[in-house]
Structures are given as structure tokens and as C-alpha cells.
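We both want to read C-alpha cells more fluently, so let's practise on a single case. Once you have written the record down, we can walk along the chain together.
***
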Amino acid sequence: MKMFRSRSWFGGGWGRPKNPHSLEHLKYLYNVLSRNQTVSEHNRELLVETLRSIAEILIWGDQNDSSVFDFFLEKNMLSFFLRIMRQRSGGSNYVCVQLLQTLNILFENIRNETSLYYLLSNNHVNSIIVHKFDFSNEEVMAYYISFLKTLSLKLNAHTIHFFYNEHTNDFPLYTEAIKFFNHPETMVRIAVRTLTLNVYKVDDSSMLAFIRDRTAAPYFSNIAWFIGKHIQELDMCVRNEADHHSQNRLADLVAEHLDHLHYINDILCLNITDLNHVLTDHLLHKLLIPLYIYSLASHRRKSSLPEGVNQAVAKILTKTSSGPDSPRVQDPLSGRVSCVVALFLLSQVFLILSHSPLVQSLAWIILKTDSTVLDKGVNTLLEHYETEKKLLEDSLSDEASAVNSSSKEALLEDLINITDEEKEKLAKNPSENVAMHKPFLETVYSALDCSENDYGALFALCLLYAMANNKGITSDVIEQVLKPKKSFMSKSSSKDIKYSYNVYLVEKLLLIISLACQPTCRIRLVTLEISLKLLLQLVICDGKNILLEPHRAVIETAKSQSMALLRNFYKSEEIFLDMFEHDFRYCDMSKSSLNVEWLCMDSAILLPPAGTPLTGIDFIKRLPCGESEKARRAIRLFFLMRNTVLTLSGEIETQLPLTNPQSCVQIEQALDLSISHNSDLIACTVLYKDGMKMRRFLVIDVLQLILVEPDNKRLGWGVAKLVGFLQDIEVTGDKDDSRCLHITIHRPISGATTNRVPLLSAKFLFDDNIRCMAAKQRLTKGRMKARQKKMQHIARLLEIPGQSGPPSPAFTGQGLYTCRATGRNLRENRQLFTAGRAPGFAAPKRESSPGVLHRADESRRHRDGDSPHRLSNLRKELSASPSNNNVKKETRSREASSSRTKSREGSPKMPRPRSEEIPLELIKKASHSIIDMAPKINILPRPQSVKTESEPCTSGLINDNAQSKESGVLKEATIISEETSFIGDRQSDKRGEEREAV
């Protein structure tokens, strides 16, 4: 008994081949299926494992052994799959899940076309497709729809005949899939859309004819109905979500509407004429015109608010209405939506769809539909459009009609290009507006009213911008309304050109711009930016600014108002400079183009304008909250207006950014440390928080703090390892160690928050406390001066009185950046020290340096500072000194220093003289030692030729020729500083020659 049990199919695996990837193993699995054709709770695990193994062997055989597929087809093993699926016994769903997964894996991984044809033969796959699975089981539904999508990926001109039967007009793969178009699961809906697109791409006339005649009309009709029902839900969500509590639901609804539009656009872009005609007809008659466009009609009666509609939203929706016929609120049961929702949805339509017959019809209806045909229904409206379109085409071919058409255009032009008196008359009589008798266009224009808020104006602007930039709309529809018009004065010559634009719309935009520059306005930055973009498109033609002088004056006034508004925040915020630079970077990155399509993807703009960041809405899409955000808004307003004025005048920005990136040192840039121009070089050890230590040289430039690592390959050169702006540093001393400083270098402000992210936060250990104090002083003063220079530059931009003068060196690259190289190679290497002068070397005594006081001189100054006979005492000392010439120079230096010190009493704002700073090299081995202070370093590109002019000395030090004459001091000052010893070897020979010369 034991022997037979071990040899059974359910026993210890008797007869199972050792190689799982072989024909013998497939034969073994076939025997298993043959003996277990009835599914039960006892054998379902075995069947699942068998089905999984079959798929694995078939995939292996597709690439290695064709006999595997021969055996699979010979035994008709797919019939076993059908037999298992059709059973209703216990555990059948469990096995069906594995069976569908097996089929999915199998068809997805087969590469051999012959093997694919074998699997699709005998019509077993179509039988599996039409099988009535238990779709209430989520796993069955997921694997079934995934299986159908995988099959659609295999469709081509050859395989289509395995799925579509031309004789029976049967196409189960397509007809079964479209039943799940509106399935609750997003994954299922996406798979159905992908499958239908894969079907439409197959170039088979009989199959496409079947779809057009048998399925297109009901399927596309269902699509229109599903989208309409979806929009009703979206409209109700907007009405009830004034407090921004359920943004997720609204975001899902907007995303679903976008998916519908992209799916429709994908179908239209396939350019299948018959399908496009059917789809366009259903969209126009059943969705876009009756639901989208008719919701804009301002003539229909005001309906009562449905129960449960949030009154706050209703109040906003009813704003800007012009009487009892308000278009802002509609009863959802009437098949219409609110005006703001209609504007928003139409914006998405024109931003996504570009099929010319569709968007051309919609644009013409919105811009040119007369109120006389509005009440006659959608069919009459489309018939009127077709008639007008045919008349226009006939007029283009007939010369007489062309004359009449030109006269009509001239009449329209006269209506738009009206005089100031006529404008005033029209202002008194709004009924005589240029949009008179055009109900849809009138609604769009009335939505541009921003006297209270810009809730509806944002959507109206998005719609106008989308129509103006839709490639499927021809110029004859939008010309003179949304684009400038160019006409020739004479037919014989093309030189005399007359430009015109929609004056009424431009004045509407200018009013929005002017209101946005007021201190108490409620216009968001995104509304202003779209207004400016649309304005530039309306008034710039052929690269020329055709804006009329009165309108130019309005723009200039608005710019002046934005400057005046920003002056109120100048220096009122501690982080004003940081916000100014950050917002410029933001506007500079986004000034190329505001992506209106991305804007209309954001569901948050459908809700009333928020005034708090707690809603999570982007700053430009909401109202500012607090003084800090009001300052940010004023800054961005200034940038937008400045950029618009420069664009209209054809000028290029030359004053911004505040810091010229080309004149700054970059990381890993080579620096020549043997050339000095007014910067400081201090050796230090950087102690990071993770315990890592690095020896670096601290370079303090005019605008930057640079950590330099000596270059091991080139003597006297270094590589910038870290670069930060002085304006972004924080320096604090260490209470326990006088040689340490805690330095934090912040990154520039980024994002909506003003929290500073540190670029570096570490402890800097110097060789002694003197160097530490000197570094702290340089960094503190450098930060203050850098911020002062930039604030002065901002003041000049804002035309603040008392700030006239040339731009600051921080921007122009002049002053310390005069020698910035024009070529890329010149910027690679910058020089830090003049030839023959390296910090730390013995140097001749600088008697005439007013910025350096030796200890003896300092004590003498304190002793004789209050004496009225100080000068006489100095003269006596000079007469008794053997080196009379040098002492005279020293006396003149002290007198100059004294005079500058006295000047501070009357001018407290003057910078402190160098004589009061702690010299960098004030380190003495003995009381009589004299060590010179290292000159400041200016980071400049390496010169390509020898200078012919002497460099101006900003530190007040005398030249090297005068120093080389002090032989006595030279012998004492032979101590080489440790921090620059790597430069010293290069100049040892020169130092020896100087000693011999002395």
C-alpha cells in the first residue's frame, strides 16, 4: 500500500521530472490536469501550482524549445482552462484568479509570433474573454481587465483577425472591455481607455467600420453622458466646499475630468475621419454646448438655490451679476452648472483639445454667437455656424463678397478702435457695449470685473488665453478679439501697415493690472500674471509694440504704483533682502512662460480665494496673510510690472539679479593664492558635527566666504571647496575656547517657507585667539557691508530719494571684479595674491601704513592722544631718529589716521578706519617683533598679460619698493607663517636676493 501511494499523482512526486524546464515536465503537468478536471477544495492548490508551472514552461519553450508549444497545442491544453473556468464548484474563483494570472503572464512574455498565433488559434481566447466571471471578486476583476489590456497590446494588422470575426461581426475583446468604461475602480477605467486606443490604432478598414457602425454611437454617447454626470458632481462639490475642508474629493473630480479630456484628445489625434466625426458630433450636441457653453448664457432666469448649497459660495457665485438674470448660480437639476465652473471646464477643453472642427466651432459660438439664435437650441446654433462658415468660404473665393466682408471688418474695427468721447458714451450706456448681443462673450467680459475679488476673473482670463493659443483655431475666428489685426493701407504696397487690437478687452486687462497695484486689492498674483501675458499677446505684433499712448501711460502708472507699494516694505522686514533675491529667482525661472495648463489642473483655484497658508494652496494662487506675505506679494508685483514694461519697450534687464553669478567663485574652481588683491586668507580647521576634521584656508571676499584647499599639484594654488555668500552667514564665538568660532552658512531662501536651510554649520578652530578675533570681525563686517550694498542697489531700483548713483559693484562686476575675464578659460583660474607678496613672509616695515599700528605706536597714541603738544612731541622724536625719512613717513601716516579718527565725530555713518581693526598678522614672538598685516585679497581672474597700470591700494599700504628699503626691519621679520607655508618655497630665492641687496 505504501508503494502505490508513493507512486500516485498526489504522493511523493513519483514520475516528476527533475528538470522543471523541459518537455517531459510539461507532459507531467498535462497528466495532472487530466486527472483533476473537477475543481474541489482538495485539489485547488495542486491546480494553481500546475497552472503556474505551465506558464513558466511555455515562456521557456518560446525562447528555447519549439516542441513545447507543439505539445501544448497537440493536447489542446487551453480546453482544460475553459473547463475549469466554467465550473461553479467550491474554490473555482480561487483557481480562476490563477488561471487569468497565468494567461496574462503568458501573453505578456511571449516574443515569437508563431507561438502567439498558436495560442490565439481555435478561438479559445475569445471564449475565455466572453466567459461570465464573478466580477464581484476584486482579484478576478483586476486580472481579467489586465488580461484584456495585455491582449490589446498584441493587436496588429495580422493578429486582429484572431479577435474580430468579419463574417459574424463579432469583436469580443472590444465590446466586452467598453462595458467597464465607467467602472468605480480607477485602474479598470484606465485599462479600458488604453485598450480602446490600441484597437483604434490598428489599420483595418472592416474592423473600424464595425466600430463606427455598431459601437461608436452608443459608446461615445455614453462617454458624453458619463462626463456630464461627473461635471454635475464637480459643480455640487464646488458649491459645498467653501471652507477648503474636502479638497481631496474636489481634486479627484478635476483629475477625472482631465483624464476624460486627454482620452478624447488621444482619439481625435489618431485622425480616423469616421470616428472623429461621430465623436465630435456627440460632444457638441450632448455635452460641450448644452452643458458647458449654455451655462455661460446670461439671459436665462435666475434659479433658486438648491438645498444644502453653502451660502458663502452662493454669495461669491452671485457676485458680479448685473441684475436679476445672473448667470452665476444654476440649479444642478436643470442640467447647467455655475458660471465659474463652466469657465474653468472650458479652459481645460481649449488647453487640451486641438481638433480643429471641434475647437473652431466652440470658439466661434463663444465669441460670435448672436442672442437671436441662442433660444433656438443647439441644432439651430450649429446650423447657424455652418451657414456662416460656408458664407465666409464663399466670400473668400468671390471678389465682390470680399469687398463686402472687408467693409464689415472695417465697421467692426471702427467699433473697437473708438475715440475717447465714444468710450465715455459707451461707459454711460453699458448696453451699447462692443459685446452687445453676444451673450457668451458678454458673460466672459463681465467676469473680468475685479472690483470685489478675482474669483471669476481668473477663469475668464484662462479661457481667453486658452482660445488665443489653441493651434486648432484659425486666425479669422479670434483675430481682432484675442489677437492683434494687421491690415494694409493699400493693396499695391505692403509698406503701409495699420495695426489694431481689441481696445475694450485691453482696457479690461489694464483695469485689473491697475487694481492689482493698489495696497488693499484682493487680486491674486496668478490673475495679474495671466493678465499681463494676455496683454502682451494683444498689443505686440510682428515684434512691435502697438499699444496706444493712453494705454502706455496706464502701464507706466501701474509700474510706479508697484514701486511705491514696495517702498513701504523696504527695510521693514529683517529678511527683506533674502525675500527679494528669492522672489527674483522664482520670477526669473517662471518668467519664460506661466503654464496655464498646469494652473487649470489645480482644483484649489475652483474654491473661493483663500487668505491663509494653512489651506496648502500655492502663494501665487491665494491672498497674502500677514506682513511678511504682503511684502512677498509686493516684491513679485514689482518684478512682474518691471518685466512687462521692459518687454513692451524692447529692453533687456541690466540691473538684476543683485549678484552677478559670473563674477562669483564656484566650487572646485582653481585659485591662484600667490596674487593678492584685497582679501583675507586665514588658516583654520573645520570641525564638522559628525566629527570629521579638515584643514582649510578661509578666504573672505567682498561678497563671498570661500574655503580653500591647497592644490598638491601646483605650488601656490588652491581649490575652492565651499562657497557661501557673506550675507547668509551667522557667526558666534565659543564660550569655552577663544580660538573657535561657530559659523553657519545658510542657503538662499527657497520655496514658500522662509526657514533657512544651512549650507554649512560647523566649528572653525584657528591657530590663536588673535586670528579668531580677526576672522570674526571680518565676517561680521563683511556680512553687514554685503547686505548694505545690495540694499542700496534695491533702493536705486525703487527710486528711493537719496540713492542715486551708479549700480553697486555687487551686480555690475566692477570695483573688485573689474578684471573679470570675458572668456571661459579666464574664469577657471582666479588670482588671490600679487606676485612676490605672500602672507606670512618676512616683509619690510611699512612705516606709512595708516591702517597698521605697532604696539609701541599704539601705546604712544594712547599716552599722547589727549595731549595738545602731540605733534610737537612727534617732531622731536623725528629729529632725534636716525632714519629721519622713514619716521617722517610714519608721522604723516599717524596724522592721516588721526585726522580720519576726528572725522568720525561729525560723521558717525562713516566706516571705521582700518587703524581700529584687529590686524590679521598682529602676532609677535617678542615684544620688539614687527610683523606686517596680510593685505586683503580680491578674487580676480588670472591676468593673461602683464599689467601696465598699478593696482589701486584700498588698504592704505605703501608699495613694495618703499618696504624693500627697510633693511633693519627685514632682518627681524624673517618668520614664515604656518598658514601660508605652502606658498613660501616658491619665493625663498627671491627673499635671499633681497637680503643680499640690502
Summary: Residues 205-240 form the longest helix (36 residues). The radius of gyration is 41 Å. The mean pLDDT is 75.
